[in-house]
Design brief:
Elements: E1 13-18, E2 24-29, E3 34-38
Antiparallel strand pairs: 1-2, 2-3
Length: 52
């Protein structure tokens, strides 16, 4: 597994849950809060080549 980004929290994590389409990570923390993290979508680029 590759670390993409780290986030420091000031509380303990109780549970982690990925949504079905893996677009969000739900983080339940000790103080009762629910943190919702979203994945940053990379823009798609197209390579266009011209044949002469």
């Amino acid at each position: 597994m590759k670390t993409i980004q780290t986030i420091r929290l000031r509380t303990h994590i109780n549970c982690l849950y990925f949504t079905k389409d893996f677009s969000h990570l739900l983080v339940g923390v000790k103080d009762g809060k629910l943190i919702v993290l979203t994945a940053e979508k990379k823009s798609l680029t197209k390579n266009v080549t011209k044949n002469n």
